[in-house]
Specification:
By secondary structure, the chain is mainly alpha-helical. It has 5 helices and no strands. It is elongated and about 65 Å long. The termini are far apart.
């Protein structure tokens, strides 16, 4: 069994939440993205409310990740294109 499958749903939630929303305030930002109460995230993380792989919030989390990935991919392509069109060649390098 891989280490990934041994993680709890709460551990996965924390890992993905921190990856999506870097910094100290990832929990409230994740709650907004999932359209849930902020204290619900804390309850899931502390095990005071049932939270497992079958919970619908994880499907919503996956959708948030997919949407973010798509938006970042588009942003990266736009920035690369813009830089290619707008950067000038360094002196002596031609252009």
């Amino acid at each position: 069994m891989s280490e990934q499958s041994e993680r709890t749903a709460a551990e996965m939630l924390e890992q993905i939440g921190k990856a999506l929303f870097e910094g100290d305030y990832w929990q409230p930002r994740l709650a907004v993205a999932l359209r849930i109460r902020r204290d619900t995230i804390r309850q899931w993380l502390h095990g005071t409310v049932e939270f497992d792989a079958n919970h619908g919030a994880l499907d919503n989390l996956l959708a948030v990740v997919a949407r973010r990935k798509l938006n970042l991919s588009i942003a990266e392509a736009d920035l690369r294109d813009w830089l290619q069109r707008n950067r000038t060649a360094p002196p002596g390098k031609g252009g």
